[in-house]
Amino acid sequence: MSNNNFANPQAPSNYVHPQKDDSGPMTNEDFRKLLMTPSVHTVRSQAIPQTVRGTSATVKKKKLTGEAAEKRKEKKLYYATLVKESQEKQKELSEKYRDRAKERREKEKEGEAESDQIELLQTGYRAVAPGFSL
Known about the structure:
Elements: H1 28-36, H2 40-47, H3 66-96, H4 100-123
């Protein structure tokens, strides 16, 4: 069941669970009373709403202070420069070398178009043996 709130009804707020001294087997009434008592999980889930990942929704992100913020900025700048350098290098290489695979694909597309046209022209005619009439 996806929604546990409806699986077991909550006991009334004024409900007091009676204590028995019997150590004998439990009856159906005993099981009903157990089901009516709220579990720790249901009480906790009603007190603090949970998000999908299980963390409470009311907890806010901690703001970075002083050194932590500076370290984070330094890291971000470092990785940004790395990314920028790799993009420049990739651009330089793309200008230097030609994309032969792309050229092959384009030639194949042109070849397919030509073969399609030839096939269309050839299907318009039928080879017939000499002296054969319809």
